[in-house]
Write a structure and sequence with these properties.
Strand content: 15-25%
Shape: elongated
CATH architecture of the largest domain: Roll
Structural class: alpha+beta
Strand order of the largest sheet: 1-2-3-4-5
Distance between the termini: 26 Å
Order of helices and strands: EEHHEEEEEHEHE
Helix content: 25-40%
Radius of gyration: 23 Å
Keywords: Membrane, Transmembrane, Transmembrane helix
CATH class of the largest domain: Mainly Beta
Protein name: PH (Pleckstrin Homology) domain-containing protein
Length: about 200
């Protein structure tokens, strides 16, 4: 972990390899699609025999604009990778590229590392369970887009992540599940269960 400002302790991140691979894939696919569109429609006349504009002549430009938007969207996770920070007040969790969710310890009931063995390599998730009062007066209530990694964890574990409210992939961070849980337990108040679950 590394300290940021005076209060938050930020968990060190790995390079966002998953996001970079996705960006390169989008870029190469987009270049291919744009090239195919240009080859197919480059000979189209600008106007039809009737004198009206030919929509097919503008297809390469339309395809190129769509590719630019797709690649731009794929760059967001590269510049805003997942984030996890902790202090004695609570946790700041950004599971994806968009929102950082603030989870005060008073509303957190359990923090668990869930490791799922796989054939080639297992996947590990850090799960957060909160009480029903989260977001009413302080902190944030996780929304649908914030729960994308949680839904992935639930599928990977065949429903064992049910009952949790938020998740991050531990492969996005440098620390081992055991080391991260140990560090989080140093900040967690006594009512929070910190558990390591190996499936």
């Amino acid at each position: 972990m590394q300290r940021q400002a005076a209060e938050w302790v930020v968990v060190r991140r790995r390079a966002p390899r998953r996001a970079i691979v996705r960006l390169v894939t989008y870029l190469l696919t987009g270049v291919g699609i744009t090239a195919v569109g240009w080859v197919l429609f480059v000979t189209e006349p600008q106007r039809l025999a009737s004198g009206d504009p030919n929509p097919a002549a503008r297809a390469p430009l339309f395809v190129a604009i769509c590719v630019v938007f797709a690649v731009a969207a794929a760059t967001v996770p590269v510049w805003r990778p997942p984030r996890l920070a902790v202090n004695h007040y609570g946790l700041a969790v950004r599971p994806g590229a968009f929102r950082t969710v603030l989870l005060p310890w008073v509303h957190v009931e359990e923090v668990a590392a869930l490791t799922v063995p796989g054939r080639r390599r297992g996947e590990a998730y850090l799960l957060f369970a909160c009480d029903g009062h989260l977001g009413r007066h302080s902190g944030d209530r996780p929304r649908f887009v914030d729960r994308a990694v949680l839904r992935e964890a639930d599928r990977a574990t065949e429903g064992r992540a049910t009952g949790f409210d938020l998740a991050v992939r531990l492969t996005d961070f440098r620390q081992s599940p055991e080391g991260l849980l140990r560090d989080l337990a140093g900040f967690a108040p006594p009512h929070v269960l910190v558990a390591d679950r190996v499936e």
